[in-house]
Structures are given as C-alpha cells and as structure tokens.
Amino acid sequence: MGHPRRRLRTSTAVAAVSAAVLAGTVAGPVTAAHGTTASSTVRFVEIPGDGGTPLAANVVVPGDADGGRRYPLVVLPTSWSMPQVEYLAQAKKLADSGYVVLSYNSRGFWQSGGEIEVAGPPDVADASKAIDWALANTPADPERIGMAGISYGAGISLLASAHDDRIKAVVAMSGWADLVDSIYSGRTQHTQAATFLTGAGYLTGRPSDEFKEIISGFLASDLEKEGDMIAWGKKRSAATHIDRINANGPAIMLGNAWGDSIFPPNQYADFYEKLTGPKRLEFRHGDHATPEMPGLLGLPNDVWNSAERWLDHHLKGEDNGVDREQPVQLTDRQGDQEGYPDWKSVPSGTERIALNGTERVLANLDSGANGGTVFLSSIFDQLTGLPPTVSVPLLPDWYSAVWKSERYATARQVRGTVKLHTTVTSNRSSGTFVAHLYDVGPLGVGRLVTHAPFSFHGRTPGEAFGVDLELFSTAYDVPAGHRLALVIDTVDPLYAEHNPFGAKLAFSSPAGDPSYAEVPVRD
C-alpha cells in the first residue's frame, strides 16, 4: 500500500520504570522540584476543586515569566492511585519550552480531599476548577488551554473537553473512551483488571459509597444490577458525550498500547473514528501505560515527544508538520511505524479462516489457552518479544476447539481488528467462551496474537444462536511457514466465567450461515 515505515527506538528498562513510578519514588523529578531552576520554577500548592474540595497540586512556570506575558496552559490530572509528582519530569520539560503546567492529584487519592468518584461529575468539574485556578494565579493564556494525562488522567481529560469549551487540545494516553467496553467487553467482567484497580484504589485513596456498590456488584456478577452498572459506566465514557466534544472541537490525540490489559485498543479506535475535529491516533507495542512510562522519569520517550508536538502545534501554533502527517500512526512489534489516513484504511484486505464442522467443548476448565496475566504478560512481551504461548497440538480437544489456516508461503501482516462469526449452542442458559488467535510455528507452538471474551445469559438451552465478536485490535507479523489458529475454550484467568457446572458448548457452521474468523491483513 505504500504506507511509510520508519525505524523507531524502543524503550528499555520498562519494568524498572514502572516499578519506580508505581512506588511513587520518582526521585529525579522530585529533586529538581525543590526549588527554582535556571529555566522554570515549581510550587506545590493546594487548589479548590468542585465544592471547595482541596486538591493537592503542583504548578510549573517558565523561568522567564513576567507580569506581561501569557503562556499556553496544560492541565494534568494524575493517573489512578498515582501521587501528585507523577508528571513533574514532563511538566518541567513543557515549562522549559514555554508552558504553564498545572498537575493535580485526582480527588479521593493521596493528599487530595473527597472520595474516588471514578471520573464522575465531580472529577470533571475539578478539571474546570483547576483551569480557573491557573488562570487566576499564573500567567496562563485563557485562549490556549490544553489537558493531558495517562490512564485515569486521560479519561478525565477527554470528559472535561466535552464540558469545558475552553479546552483547545487534549492528549489522552492509555486511557478509555468507553469504560463499559473497556472492562465489560463481550458482556464479560475483566476481573483481573478490575480487581487490580480496586485494590490500588483502596490502598491509595478513599472509594465513594457509589463506587463500592458498583464494583461489588460487578465483581460478584450481579446481573440484577447490570443495568445500573452500564449506566454508571456510560456516564463516565467520553464516547457517550461525543456530540458535545465534536461541538467544542478540541484537537485530540489518542495513544494506547496494543496489549493494554486495562483499556484495550478497540474502544479508542472506535472513538477516534467518531471525532470530527483535529485528531491523531497512535498505537504501540506494550501494556497499560508502559509506552509512556519512561517519559515520567525524564527518559527519552516517543509518546511524550509526540504529545508535545501535538500541543505545540495546537496551542502555540507551531508549524512542526504534525498536521501534515498521516493521522493514524501504528508501531508494530519490531518498532516499525506505519501511517494511515484513517482507522478503516489500516488493513488493505481480509482473509478468512473457515470454522467448519461442529466442535463441542466442555466448560469449567482452562485448556491452557489464555490471555496471560494482567500487566505482566504484555510487559514481558514488550521486553522480550515473547507473548503468551501454548502448544496447540497438545490442547485437550474436550476442553477446546481449534481451527487452523493453511500454512502461509509468505509472511502475513495482521493489522486491525479480527472478527469472529459463529453459531453457538449451549445446554445451559448462561455461559462464557474466550476466542484466542495464535501464530503457530512448524513445531506447533502458538504465540498469542489477540483474543477476546464473550458471555451470554437468558438463552434457551439447546437452541442455537449467532455470535459476532471483535477480538482486541493488534499489529502482528506472521512469519512465512507459519499458520494462524483460532482456539476457543471456556475459562481464562483474566475474565469472569459464567458457565454453570456441567455446561457444554457447541460451535457449528450452518450451510446458510457459515462460521469464520475474518483476519485483517496489510499488503
């Protein structure tokens, strides 16, 4: 297709960086922040949030600031469970280049007051209050305001852009646009991810009663409260407010990792396609927040470099070429970058793996095919190039169903979203299955390419029904001589299981409605 490809430096020591940041040490930025440098000044302050709730914050101002000059403002809400010093290294870098930067601890965490609202209305209002404070207490320019953040900070920034039209640019890294689709995709609870976030929230903050009730019902798979949980999540999703965001027209850059085990990439890609203003989408190899983590310690980092270029163009008016590049930028496992005009142009075609015949699977036992462990598996893959693996020929056929493509004579570049269409029959009214796509070498060892869960409820036992499932988007090169294998089983440690004891699932391919896995490929 002639898309440009260029070699990028891959980040190193990601595990060490992640450990340091999660521990809240951030020794380098803190040392620099204790006084005035030659180029910028840092102050630790307390600012009033919504309803007067005190928010612990720090503000970094250019060293040449005087009473007559105004600077573009960037507001940075902290990530989930992170201390207020999270962004200091990047805040100082931005201030040195001519920004006023205000970072604050999201309400309910660490020294900030209030309770954890999970990007609820008080969190969105806090963002506007932070802007108010900066305009009143710093040389910030009211016409040039941006927001940025990682994870929780990204979600709050996107939501704030729907409710505050002063925000002209947003950089949302490793965040969510659809909270429901992120942790409840395929109507299946992402239990490892939700448990990790909940535990971190209790350790570093004060969960609100509403959050406690919602997460309790979610982890307990309380279907009677499903409607309330979905409504709660939709309220906290930028995708719900897409019309307001488009009306306000901020320039939005979205960045995420292919293997993000908290907020999978599909929901960002779907949201990106619905944006009508200036926009950019970047996907890289790694797990949740790992692509941008080194930048938090002031190390060279492609994500933060791209973020600064985006802010420079849209807040400073710099002609740095970011508006002339292909707006969709994908980095594959080898560190090669590809540019596309939009998300739908990512694959140049599709190939189908026919899911012929009828395969029957016993439930309640993990066959060995699974998505790994939240954070750890994708981080290990990022560092070593080794995703979760399984011996496909040794998978027990009574607990798994396997279909294979032909062996490829030439390499296949899988790009985008794999789609599964199949017909399911269960002897129970509820159930769960997980579809895994593997790259299988000559010795039968399968490397995980992508996967996704699916659950159903209220079905008539013995009655067939159709299923369409999107697996998590990916960029993966299948070597020549390998083949792809779709593996379906009923248990994956990442997800809740809704298979009653003794459940059996059958996957068939009716003549009038054949089953298949549609694989997006790039020429």
Automatic annotation (TrEMBL):
- Span of domain Xaa-Pro dipeptidyl-peptidase C-terminal: 308-518
Q: Span of the secretion signal?
A: 1-32
Keyword tags? Hydrolase, Signal
- Region of interest (Disordered), residue spans: 317-347
Q: Where is the composition biased (Basic and acidic residues)?
A: 317-326
MF-aspect GO terms: hydrolase activity
Q: Which family does it belong to?
A: Belongs to the AB hydrolase superfamily.
Q: Please state what the protein is called.
A: Alpha/beta fold hydrolase
Which lineage? Bacteria, Bacillati, Actinomycetota, Actinomycetes, Kitasatosporales
